[in-house]
Amino acid sequence: VIQAVDHVVLLPAYLAAGTAVLVLLADLLVARRTVTLAVAAAGAVAVIVAAVLARRGSTFCGADGCSYVFSGRAALIASVFALLTLGVVVLSVPLLRAGAAPAGEYLFLLACSMTGGVVLGAAGDLITLIVAVETLTLPLYVLVGMRRQTAESAAAAVTFFVVSVVATAITLLGAALLYAVTGVVHLPSLLSALEGDVLALPLTAAAVGLVVLGLAFKVAAVPFHAWAPATYDGAPLPIAAYLSTASKLGGVVALLLVVAVALPASVTGPVLAVLAVLTMTVGNLVALRQIRMTRLLAWSSVAQAGYILAPLAAVAADLPAAVVAAVAYTVFFVILELGAFAAVVGLRPADADGGRIDSYRGAARRHPWVGAALALALIGLAGLPPGLAGLFAKVAVVRSLLGGGAGWLAVVVALNAVVGLAYYVRVAATLYAPPAPTAVPARAVPWPVAGVLAAATALALVVGVAPQLVLDWAAL
Amino acid sequence: MTFLLVATLALPALGAVAAVAVRGDRAGRVTGTAFAALAFVASVLLVAGAESGGWFAYGVTPPGVMPWAELDVTWVPGLDLRFHIGVDGISYPLVVLTTLLTLLCCLYTIWHVPDGGRGSTLVALLLAVEVGILGTFLALDLVLFFVFFEVVLLPMYAVIAGWGGDDRRHAARKFALYTLFGSVLLLVGVFTVVAAAGTADLVALTAGAGELSRNTQIAAFLLLAVAFAVKSPLWPLHTWLPDAHTQAPTVGSVILAGVLLKMGTYGLIRVAVGVAPEGARWASPVLGLLAVAAILVGCLVCLAQTELKRLIAYSSVGHMGFVLLGVATLTATGIQAALIGNIAHGIITGLLFFLAGAVKDRFHTGDLAALGGLRERLPGLSGLLAFAAIASLGLPGLAGFWGEAFAVVAAFQRGGFWWVLYGVLAAVGGALTAAYFLRMLRRVTHGPASAAVASAPPARVSRMELAAWSPLVVLAVLVGLLPALVLAFSDGPVSSLVEAVGR
């Protein structure tokens, strides 16, 4: 069979992959850091424009369905990925200027990862989905280890690599078993194949469980979370930002695609409920004890993954509402998390890691704007005004849970928010504490970092006042 | 009217921004205070619409909220959130009390900035707290009510953590975590109601929209009642209050005791009882028991207290117990006693905290054993303290009397062995209140001057202090003589609340 390939629909993916190639060529031929950076940034912008403007449609279609479905939601996901990549590229400017990592390879790998994210949203079958997730993750193993001459960085990369490969193997095994049971790989036809007698097979439950658990690694859900803190802490700060925003978004999108489209809610619901409760509770409790900034953010982002998974547990009752809540929460979270990381990058020396929380004492007095933005992001992550974006995110999750009849889970989410406040407010208060007598004098925040921080903060404020924008997107 | 309503809420918000934006500490404080004054004027003028309301227009099942001024704008339809605010006879006195106390606190801050940070930032935070409190009292949408309920938390945390006493961090964190625990339960309760009724409109919900089932009402009432009990705070969920009060700066304590606690009791009356009347009827014996326990525990702890601010803080627990007893009876008398008790406690305890702050500022101690003989050194301050304490113990003719006396009367009206017993025990609590306040006065004002009092320079009550305190003194007398000032417009909503419970 000769398939007609609709190249226009594929344009955003082509542009993303092309960016990677161009970055490599620019580094090879021009060999100037500024040019390479400009190419990477321009490529990300081009992907955003193409994703917004490109014709919606499907390609690689067979009898069962299409493997590449570029819908409105796929366009949204692609542009969010490109936007996050753009943000991380700009955040990396001080790091690359300091020569802490080779610019060409660094940006090439980042662009490769973006390609995976752009394709992921449009994945129409399990194979495309897994390949896209792997394309998203694979470059990150190297990026995590790219801080020159640091053992932590290498250790982080190895941890991440080993855990992630195991996770991928589990997902693949689950996908293979699903294919063995049903004989289809396309997401919509999987749902119709998994009915009646097939659903009652123990093998089906095992296969569904394996797929969900494998993808749970990617969002760092407990008990598959242990890689996250070590990896975040060892990675260069902008890469930690990428891991906790884009990479996490990738995991959420992949989970949503299989849970909301392909797999029966009666099986995934209980699995996700258990995962969600464990994830938020363990993440929050361990975050209470952290003394290093990146580790605290890592554990808190584990907890946040729990809030994202929670509405999916009530997916059986009201699918669209649960998906809207999960997507909206993710968008709010990603904006706030990017803001928090941008502020941390701004407050730290170019090639440093996150450092101890003590070292941020009085930071808001030395850098009033950056400190205020960091405090706002942390408060938002805790879900309290004036971080309205985070407040509405929590409201959306609790509302969908109570609407879906999972009141007990809503109570668990609510109580976890209290634990969350305990550590977020501790960090925020540290920022405003009187500085230690040995404090270093204020260092200028590099303007690219300030730009990303300003953009993320402005976005957080806008969606905080008008959360309906995000809810409308999420319902696409 | 709508303009005044928006102005009441928007002026403090603008003032908070302006106080920070203006160059110079003192200029910022003055600017913030000016906005607080404008907000106070706007809130007082709101009364002009009260007569024209005409709540006879409501149908057979009148709602428990009868706003005479309202504003209803769509905000986030995806979360059932509308920007729906309005003012009626139950919320109006609290709104005015809030704007008044904030204005007085801002005035006080112009003259006296506690150690810790810039005074203009403190004024901005006080105004931010005011926005949250006013929003809570004005909100006619359940979700909006929750949002404003949350707004208060962090600015108040910052006030305690930034300008408080030696152990401020611990106290501030305890305050934030406890009250957040309350408000997340509120969130769950709110959406339990919204999911079952299909609307978040408080006017419609209090008129019985959605016909909530008995079980939903009980679940919702329990969640909401615990949420409000933490904020009020009602025994046994009160443990954050003494720490917060002892450590908070004077203005923080005044706002905290004066109006912030009222968010809890107001929520209990308006939201919990209003939305889930059947749940309220189911829970009322337990509420009555808790109320009496709060009164007695509060009094007994006060009798053994050795620190001035801590004593006043625990006296709040007792007073809130009387308010809860009034609500628990679910009679018109009881709820009106609760409303007036709320206002009286705000006026008198606000004054008491101002005075306790003045004592601590002068003598650098609040220890009752170290104080004494204040009457000889500072007769003016000591006289005011005696006045406030006597008002607080419920002397007839002063504001504190009505709430306490009629809560007991309502319990007797309700009848039956248990309610009569509650009434008797509450009356005993009233006597104990007199005992501990008189004990405090004997320790602080009478006797020979202690070392701390004798050695401090005799700083007389300044004109600025007098300006901040005298409105409260006048109101304590006025409300005592004319309780109708508070209750004038509350008949309609209260009787329809009671009717809904009886249905």
Name the features.
heterodimer; A: 476 residues; mainly alpha; two-stranded antiparallel ribbon; 21 helices; globular; B: 503 residues; two-stranded antiparallel sheet; 3% strand
Write the layout of secondary structure elements.
The complex is a heterodimer of chains A (about 475) and B (about 500).
Chain A lengths: L10 H19 L3 H21 L3 E5 L4 E5 L1 H20 L1 H5 L5 H18 L5 H19 L6 H32 L4 H7 L3 H4 L1 H17 L8 H8 L2 H26 L2 H23 L5 H21 L5 H29 L15 H4 L1 H15 L5 H16 L3 H26 L14 H19 L2 H7 L2
Antiparallel strand pairs in A: 1-2
Helix pairs in contact in A: 1-2, 1-5, 2-3, 2-5, 3-5, 3-12, 5-6, 6-7, 6-12, 7-10, 7-11, 8-12, 10-12, 10-13, 11-12, 11-14, 12-14, 12-15, 13-14, 13-19, 14-15, 14-18, 14-19, 15-17, 15-18, 15-20, 15-21, 17-18, 17-19, 17-20, 18-19, 18-20
Chain B lengths: L1 H20 L3 H21 L23 E8 L4 E7 L4 H20 L7 H20 L3 H10 L1 H11 L4 H30 L4 H5 L7 H18 L8 H8 L2 H11 L1 H14 L1 H27 L4 H22 L2 H32 L10 H4 L1 H14 L7 H15 L2 H28 L6 H5 L7 H19 L2 H4 L3 H12 L1
Antiparallel strand pairs in B: 1-2
Helix pairs in contact in B: 1-2, 1-4, 2-3, 2-4, 3-4, 3-11, 3-15, 3-21, 4-5, 4-6, 5-7, 6-7, 7-9, 7-10, 9-12, 9-13, 10-14, 11-15, 12-13, 12-15, 13-14, 13-19, 13-23, 14-15, 14-18, 14-19, 15-17, 15-18, 15-21, 17-19, 18-19
